[in-house]
Write a structure and sequence with these properties.
With 199 residues, the chain is an alpha/beta fold. The chain has one domain (2-198): Phosphoglycerate mutase-like (Rossmann fold, 3-Layer(aba) Sandwich), CATH 3.40.50. It has helices at residues 13-17, 30-46, 58-71, 117-135, 146-157, and strands at 2-8, 49-54, 75-77, 139-144, 171-177, 180-187, 196-198.
Amino acid sequence: MGRLLLIRHGESEGNRDRRFTPHPGIGLTDTGRSQVAAASGWLAAHYAPTVILSSPFSRARETAGILAEGLGLEVAIEPDLRERSYGAFAGQPYETARPGYDPAAYWAWQPPGGESLEEVLIRAGGVLDRAARSHGVDDIVLVSHGAVMLALWRHVTGTWGMPRVVPNGGLLEVEHEDGVYRSARRVGPDAVGGGAWRR
């Protein structure tokens, strides 16, 4: 059984300010760096990762760098792990009204000029599949973003029913075997009341 360890980047300046991040160059806050350091220690105690794959956005690359230092690993950039494009919502407060948004089908909503979660699913799911095929039974860390992890939950489980966005520095463990995803669950130092799925 191989394991894919999905981690959301630490708190960014956009998260702190409760705004859709305006551009890919936004970095982590001190709180975010502390979150990632805690996750790194937890990963080292529970797994034996062999490589880190990361979104190209600064907040993810900074997260991957902290993990790489703590785990003694190399980082490979995967462009398709980048955060969802929020189009016209970039830089706007999270509370901005979303015309046409239906919470019962949140995955279908597309910000003007941006991506739906269904579109994110197509590109990010491909990365997950390649990682599973390429690394067999190894433990692999993938650093991405909140919306990307929602889409990857759907890719693995077949349902959009993940209970909430994983917090900054939060982790999901995905087990796979012979090309089939077997389970997904919240793990890590803050994994209280998280989702779990098993085939």
